Amino acid sequence: MSTTQSPQPDETTRPARPAGREDRTPLLRRAGVGLALTALVFAVTTAVDLDDGPLLRLALAVLCGATALVVPHLAELSRQAGRQTRETRDTRAALDDTAAAVRASLERQAAEPRGADTGRPAAGTPAPPTGPVEAVAYRVDRVTADTVPEQSRRSLAEVLTTGPDILQTFARAELERVVRHMADLNNLTTECAGENHDWMLSLTQSTERSIFATSTSVDREFWNSEPASRYLQAQREAIERGVVVQRLFLLESAEMLDDKLLRLCEEQELLGIELRAAVLQELPPHLQRGTTSDFILYDEGVSFEIEQDLRDVNVKTRLIARPDHVGQRLRRFRELWEAGMNLRDLETRVDDEEDGAWMVDV
Question: Where would I find the beta strands (DSSP E) of the chain?
Fold first, then answer.
């Protein structure tokens, strides 16, 4: 017959003391000792019947009690100051160790061959992180030396380890944001809130063969903005290195065929961009049923897409590299491109619209 023993209390089952009570206990204990010593001294001086009177006896008793109260308190303050000094020294040493580890990692990365081409880690590649210092060094070491200059990598290491707290927090958040996007791209898609001009510029600068873009009425104000200037400059540089850039303006109605659109098309054609325009209401029925959202195809491999809400506000940007999705977008672009007007036809159409000479069969 077995008996069940009641579990013995241990440190994990004891109720936690309120924080304030722990802090007050030593002070109350010292105060009690001081009062007891005051009473004891007063009683002793009274018993021996000193001739100096009760006032002196009371003062002597209070002095002894106060000494018993203050001296331990001062000793405790001294111990706390010593602990704070040691903690500060340890923290500074940890930061120094982190910076040293990062610098050593960067120097090792620059000095030793990398294993990216062989599919195997290079000799001397650091192992996965086992502590905070190693974690920082490991993350920095994963950055490719070919794409990030040595000085930039050293600056990154300094910010992650020895910069102000707010700057370190910001740098870590930015690093983690990029890492999350890279992890999402393992599934051939990622997204972010709002309109991401940085992605658009980076993709344009990375393109080697072609850029096929649609532009709806939502974009009309964009072309007068500062990001548009940088975007067009990046496209001009891409054209100079042999990239074919085609842009198709999708218009909701013929009322948008005006001189403003014509000047915009002429300006972009001077940069070497091939341009066409299509009025959605005048397209064949099978083309009107497709998507009219803005998208840009880079090297026929990645689709950059912007999602609008009901107020035509850009609320989300997506990068999609799934072959089936990119293939559908490419077919859609080619069909709309073939149905669109080139710049010469557009000039004639705009003149006819302004003169009221254009008629559409109903």
Answer: 189-193, 210-215, 244-251, 274-279, 295-298, 302-308, 314-320
Taking the C-alpha atoms of residue 214 and residue 295, their distance in angstroms, rounded to an integer, is 6
| Cα end-to-end distance, the chain, whole Å | 98
DSSP lists the bridge partners of residue 68 as none
127-148 pLDDT per residue, tens: 555 554 455 555 555 544 455 5
CA pair distance 219, 222, nearest whole angstrom: 5
Could you read off the pLDDT of 56-108 as tens digits, one per residue? Answer: 656 666 666 666 666 676 677 777 777 777 766 766 666 566 656 656 665 56
Write down the pTM of the prediction: 0.56
3-state helix, strand, coil in the chain (%, to 5): 60, 10, 30
* DSSP-derived secondary structure for 317-345: EEEE--HHHHHHHHHHHHHHHHHSB-HHH
Of 270, 306, 300, nearest to 207 (Cα)?
300
The answer to whether 189 touches 320, Cβ cutoff 8 Å, is: yes
